[in-house]
């Protein structure tokens, strides 16, 4: 086992083609990333914190190609003698360095740090570090005002990255005794399709439909076993994609594709760290990925309407 120890609703949507009115949904263009520089964590790093990165201020008129929630990891590499700070963040396929200052006010400490500004998604971080270093919380503000997301907020827990081949997706439960399963957890909300619903008085009406994965995504593990054609032949295309992407998620791969990462951004064991994990895959995982890709070419999905 590889270990890196770090010290410190789509509700019922109908619209008419004649008046052009429709309800906004997330853009189907799921690649909202930029090129990343190559940085990897080391044993000398000060700390790693990871959690959810939530859109806090949004200009909806600037477009809908954005995500409400992403998962983010913040790594502080150095705190120098003059209290300057160096580190980087990992989120949505982007690995971006930052530099700034550690400011101490009484018992409080916070970091003001800037990303370089040479890419469209760069911004400024301001976050507090808890007294015992177990969490950081704060905001990120975009350097650009022409993008939909102007700021994000986060509250991250200190963690360590441990590759565990047994990690698997678990269907969320709710209720006092967790007796109800989240029926919408396995739905692809990003890649919606528009279908004609009705025609009346010369007007055409449409709805948005989505594809859903089966419960097999919670059962089949492509890291611990050699997958067989018998296991895969009756699965939906989305099933195959998620099973394959879960292999990459276990290794800390940061997904650029919104359609892929929507299934992992709320998963507690998922810690995005790397833009490329090909050299970290086991022989079994490599064979399974090849088999899954082969079946994905010919698999299909059933689309239907879901409400949430």
TrEMBL record:
Q: Which residues cross the membrane?
A: none
Q: Where is the YARHG domain?
A: 215-297
**Alphabetized InterPro entries for the sequence:** YARHG_dom, YARHG_sf
Superkingdom, natural source = Bacteria
Name used for this protein in its record: YARHG domain-containing protein
């Amino acid at each position: 086992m590889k270990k890196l120890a770090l010290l410190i609703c789509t509700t019922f949507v109908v619209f008419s083609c004649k008046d052009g009115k429709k309800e906004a949904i997330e853009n189907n263009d799921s690649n909202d990333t930029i090129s990343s520089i190559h940085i990897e964590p080391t044993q000398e790093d000060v700390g790693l914190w990871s959690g959810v990165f939530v859109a806090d201020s949004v200009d909806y008129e600037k477009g809908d190609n954005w995500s409400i929630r992403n998962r983010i990891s913040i790594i502080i590499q150095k705190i120098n003698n003059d209290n300057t700070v160096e580190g980087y963040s990992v989120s949505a396929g982007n690995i971006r360095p930052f530099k700034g200052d550690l400011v101490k006010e009484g018992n409080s400490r916070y970091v003001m740090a800037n990303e370089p500004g040479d890419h469209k998604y760069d911004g400024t971080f301001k976050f507090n570090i808890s007294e015992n270093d177990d969490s950081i919380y704060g905001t990120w503000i975009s350097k650009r005002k022409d993008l939909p997301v102007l700021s994000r907020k986060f509250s991250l827990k200190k963690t360590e990255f441990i590759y565990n081949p047994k990690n698997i997706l678990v269907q969320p439960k709710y209720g006092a005794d967790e007796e109800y399963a989240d029926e919408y957890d396995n739905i692809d909300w990003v890649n919606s399709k528009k279908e004609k619903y009705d025609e009346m008085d010369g007007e055409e009406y449409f709805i948005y439909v989505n594809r859903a994965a089966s419960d097999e995504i919670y059962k089949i593990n492509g890291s611990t076993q050699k997958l067989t054609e018998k296991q895969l032949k009756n699965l939906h295309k989305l099933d195959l994609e998620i099973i394959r992407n879960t292999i990459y998620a276990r290794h800390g791969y940061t997904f650029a594709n919104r359609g892929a990462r929507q299934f992992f951004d709320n998963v507690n064991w998922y810690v995005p760290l790397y833009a490329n994990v090909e050299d970290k895959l086991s022989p079994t995982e490599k064979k399974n990925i090849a088999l899954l890709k082969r079946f994905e070419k010919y698999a299909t999905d059933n689309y239907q309407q879901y409400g949430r």
